[in-house]
Design brief:
Elements (H helix, E strand, L loop, with lengths): L1 H13 L11 E6 L8 H16 L4 E6 L7 H9 L5 E2 L14 H4 L7 H9 L1 H6 L8 E16 L13 E4 L3 H9 L3 E4 L5 H6 L5 E4 L1 H6 L8 E17 H6 L2 H19 L2 H14 L4 E2 L3 H11 L2 H9 L1 H11 L1
Helix pairs in contact: 2-11, 5-15
The structure holds (2S)-2-hydroxybutanedioic acid.
């Protein structure tokens, strides 16, 4: 009885209907940190849950725990290696302890849009990145898109110098620390679940994120406005424990991976639309969205791009060149 109450409480807290896993089904826990609707990852995770539970009923049972209800991104990979969770989709900025290769994606103005990101990820270089953490026990399964990042603060940001002296929340990535330092900001690494409170209480002055995250977690409500900089990308790697994946019978693993790949293709094609809708929802809710003209945006490029030199050694100049060839 105790177990039932605890499990029920967890599922209520997670805001999900209790996925009734039958005895004998392989239970797959998928932990993530965002909201579920109007969000590229939230929608994709829910679709994956629905399809696995329909099409693999009796064999496999997927339970999604959104909104950091099970783990935040700083804990989920450790939990995965311990076998406490089987799937996660942290942003590419959150793999620093496991690989430095993904720093490429954090370099400001590396990719002009999500189509360029997709083209790079689909290349041999991008696909090889999914295998880059096997030695550490993690297997990448798919890249999921969110979108381009925007800047916000408790004062208008038009010129990069407007950021001077402001405290910014960043994800746990040294590239993002360097990027905020390049515009005179004080970066602070912080878990996603803590950002709203930190902005509200003035622990930090600003942040960068995609439209869907700024809308989904209501950051715009505690900021002066959001400036459309599109200065960087926020994308995800769906990742699993390699031993767990190997432990599945081949037909089960194949069906699971086929469904995952189909969900990836379907939802990645919609990510830009989901972010555009989130942006419109911010405007509709009375949030201030600021545009930059070409000259103003160029000032952000010039302020932030020197960061590339600091990390070329980690990511490899050949990777930067390959990304830029695709981005051209
Ligand atoms: C963040 O920490 O800002 C994002 O990585 C959250 C997410 O998963 O989109």
């Amino acid at each position: 009885f105790k177990t039932t109450v605890a499990a029920l409480a967890l599922s209520v807290a997670a805001g999900t209907a209790m996925a009734a896993c039958d005895p004998g089904e392989i239970v797959v826990k998928f932990s993530h940190v965002t909201n579920t609707d109007k969000h590229p990852k939230g929608i994709a995770a829910s679709l994956l849950e629905q399809r696995i539970n329909d099409e693999m009923n009796g064999t496999m049972c997927l339970e999604v725990f959104p909104n950091s209800t099970l783990y935040n991104d700083n804990k989920v990979l450790e939990a995965m290696l311990q076998g406490d969770v089987q799937l996660a989709a942290p942003s590419l900025s959150k793999f620093e302890k496991f690989t430095k290769q993904f720093r490429l994606f954090d370099l400001p103005f590396m990719f002009k849009n999500i189509e360029a990101v997709d083209a790079f990820q689909s290349s041999a270089d991008g696909q090889a990145m999914m295998d880059s953490m096997q030695r550490r026990g993690l297997q990448g399964l798919a890249f999921w898109h969110n979108g381009m990042k925007q800047m916000s603060a408790n004062k208008p940001l038009v010129a990069p110098s407007d950021a001077d002296g402001l405290k910014f929340r960043v994800q746990s990535s040294d590239v993002l620390v360097a990027q905020m330092e390049a515009i005179g900001g004080s970066p602070q690494k912080m878990a996603f679940s803590e950002v709203y409170g930190a902005l509200q209480q003035g622990v930090v002055d600003g942040q960068e994120n995609t439209w869907s995250n700024i809308f989904g977690k209501k950051f715009f409500e505690v900021q002066d406005g959001v400036t459309e900089t599109n200065h960087g990308v926020l994308d995800y790697l769906v990742v699993t424990n390699i031993d767990w994946l190997d432990s599945l019978d081949a037909p089960v693993r194949d069906q699971f991976l086929t469904i995952l790949n189909e969900v990836t293709a379907t939802r990645n094609a919609e990510s830009s639309k989901v972010n555009a809708e989130a942006k419109q929802s911010i405007v509709d809710a009375g949030g201030e969205v600021r545009q930059l003209n070409a000259e103003q945006r160029q000032a952000w490029v010039e302020a932030m791009k020197p960061v590339w030199d600091q990390f070329a050694g980690d990511v490899g100049q050949d990777m930067i060149d390959a990304a830029q060839a695709i981005n051209a």
